[in-house]
Design a protein that fits this description.
One of its GO terms (cellular component) is acetyl-CoA carboxylase complex. The protein is α/β, with parallel strands linked by helices. The protein contains 14 helices and eight strands. Strands 1, 2, 3, 4, 5, 6, 7 and 8 form an eight-stranded mixed beta sheet that branches. The chain is globular, with a radius of gyration of 22 Å. About 40% of the residues are buried.
């Protein structure tokens, strides 16, 4: 059963009413076809109205939906011959980040992405998509491998943030993230990053120093969670909805600020409603992006990446 979000409650109530009328019509000798048709038209219009006018907090809730497609969900649909690679060759393997080699439209590529679970057991195994340092070091190892063999890199971002635990700090969490930022800036192959769910803090940015950064329509990308921001600003985490509106963390906001290149449209109701259709939308954007970056040589790729991030946040009085 798909989890219902608070703003979807009117749709649930109307759908329940339609179902009840259909059952009543089949059991009783009463023709309610006209009434059912009217309610179905009302449902369609209400659905469009709700999903075409989502507020920032609504998008946060969709981005966090437990059924939202993960990195491995997209890998199964978008890529061929995926071979997952493990370990950072230093400490161990972090299952909160997955990566490997695959083929995309005939082109060998390296895939790296945050990975959450779909149930409690898998979430515990994946540490709820919050990587330890060895996860980021695994990602960097695969990036360096991709550079060696001249493979483009596609990253999928979906994490609340890097794991803030004692063991992670002892093993160099901050250094691992900083190292990724430094090394990604100078990689000589095309890098494309896509925010497919939550993009939280440095834990997300460690896979986000790319030539092109795209976002799914209902994803979020921010320096801190709305709850965290509300706790700092107003000492009250329950004001997260207010914080989400003030922080400008949604895809339309970030597109307006020129922090991302493209917004990947989502199927009505969110990516979890139809992963195959959603993957087709994403495939179109990835194909276009990869084709554009393939025309650049190594020096141009590095310069383009540098200039992209250098202009973010530049103040102007104009």
């Amino acid at each position: 059963m798909v989890k219902t979000l608070p703003f979807e409650e009117p749709l649930v109530q109307l759908k329940t009413k339609i179902t009840e009328l259909k059952e009543y019509t089949s059991d009783a000798e009463v023709d309610l076809t006209k009434e059912i048709t009217q309610l179905e038209e009302r449902f369609t219009n209400l659905e469009k109205d709700i999903y075409h006018n989502l507020k920032p907090w609504d998008r946060v809730q969709i981005a966090r939906h437990p059924e939202r497609p993960t990195t491995l969900d997209y890998v199964k649909v978008l890529f061929d011959d995926f071979i997952e690679l493990h370990g950072d060759r230093n400490f161990g393997d972090d299952e909160a980040i997955v990566g490997g080699v695959a083929s995309f439209e005939g082109t060998p590529i390296t895939i790296i992405g945050h990975q959450r679970g779909k149930d409690t057991k898998e979430n515990i195994r994946r540490n709820f998509g919050m990587p330890h340092p060895e996860g980021y070091r695994k990602a960097l190892r695969l990036m360096k491998q991709a550079e060696k063999f001249k493979r483009p890199i596609i990253c999928f971002i979906d994490t609340k943030g890097a794991y803030p635990g004692k063991a992670a700090e002892e093993r160099g969490q901050s250094e691992a993230i900083a190292r990724n930022l430094l090394e990604m800036a100078g990689l000589k192959v095309p890098i494309i990053s896509v925010v497919i769910g939550e993009g939280g803090s440095g834990g997300a940015l460690a896979l986000g120093v790319a030539n092109h950064v795209h976002m799914l329509e209902n994803s979020t990308y921010s320096v801190i969670s709305p709850e965290g921001a509300a706790s700092i600003l107003w000492k009250d985490a329950t004001l997260a909805q207010k914080a989400a509106e003030a922080m400008r963390i949604t895809a339309p906001n970030l597109k307006e600020e020129e922090i991302i290149e493209e917004i990947v449209p989502e199927v009505l109701g969110g990516a979890h409603k139809d992963i195959d259709t959603q993957a087709s939308y994403l495939k179109e954007v990835l194909s276009k992006s990869l084709s554009e970056l393939k025309t650049l040589d190594e020096e141009q790729l590095i310069d383009q990446r540098y200039n992209k991030f250098r202009k973010i946040g530049v103040f102007s009085e104009e």
